[in-house]
Design a protein that fits this description.
Elements lengths: L8 E8 L2 E8 H13 L4 H11 L5 H15 L1
Antiparallel strand pairs: 1-2
Helix pairs in contact: 1-3
């Protein structure tokens, strides 16, 4: 993780329902996603699983971005 945000997606592996999956998000979203999970006392895999269960027919990366945006806007 870097201190600068260049806008390029960074791929990380998550475990959902016992299976590994890769998700590409920009650094700013990874930082915010980790902070939200920590603030909620959750691992990012647990939070990603919740988002995955509710995302409908959109991609997981998009669902995480929307979740992060809505969470930040609600603060």
């Amino acid at each position: 993780m870097t201190d600068t945000f260049d806008g390029r997606p960074v791929k990380h592996s998550l475990t959902l329902k016992g299976h590994r999956t890769s998700v590409s998000l920009e650094d700013a979203f990874w930082v915010a996603f980790r902070k939200i999970a920590a603030d909620r006392g959750q691992a990012i895999n647990a939070l990603a699983s919740e988002i995955d269960a509710q995302r409908g027919d959109i991609g997981l990366a998009s669902a995480i971005r929307v979740f992060v945006l809505k969470t930040v806007q609600a603060c």
